Amino acid sequence: MNPDVITSYTCPLCGTPYADGEEAKECLARCRKRQAARKALAPEATAHEMLSEEIALGLERVLGEFRQSLEAVVELEALQRKQFLTEREVERLFGVSVATLRTKRCRGDGPEYIKDGAKVFYTPKAVRHYLEGRRVRTRESR
């Protein structure tokens, strides 16, 4: 899987998001089993059993969303700890698009970078320094 592409999968029955397609397939299988069990129990099912099932589905959905959020935080934390960043990593960490970085580099502007053949790397410190140099003072900040 390409680390520069964010891919998300969702169970079509319960709506729980997953970062991995296999996990989404497993969730779909569990949901189908639950549906089959509900149909089999429908006339005799107690309110407690139905409520328990709804709570389980809701909890699974919330935990799936929490897991995705946590994965994003872990990814950003890992990027912050890297010594050298690619253009795409700078974009993810600082919000400066790859196109902007390339344009500024061609014009001799932008953050300092390291070039090794066709590869371009930035240090987080250089990007922060560049962005801090673009700070605009407003009347309220004086």
What labels describe this entry?
disordered N terminus; 142 residues; 5 helices; 58% helix; 2 domains; elongated; two-stranded antiparallel ribbon; mainly alpha
Question: Which secondary structure elements does this structure contain, and how are they paired or packed?
Answer:
Layout: E1 9-10, E2 17-18, H1 21-41, H2 47-81, H3 87-94, H4 98-106, E3 114-116, E4 119-121, H5 124-133
Antiparallel strand pairs: 1-2, 3-4
Summarize the structure.
The chain is mainly alpha-helical. The protein has helices at 21-41, 47-81, 87-94, 98-106, 124-133, and strands at 9-10, 17-18, 114-116, 119-121. It folds into 2 domains: 9-81; 87-141, no CATH class.
Describe the overall structure:
The chain has 142 residues and is mainly alpha-helical. The chain has two domains: 9-81; 87-141, no CATH class. The chain is built from five helices and four strands; from the N terminus they run ββααααββα. The chain has a two-stranded antiparallel sheet with strand order 1-2. The chain has a two-stranded antiparallel ribbon with strand order 3-4. Strand 3 and strand 4 (119-121) form a beta hairpin. The chain is elongated and about 70 Å long.
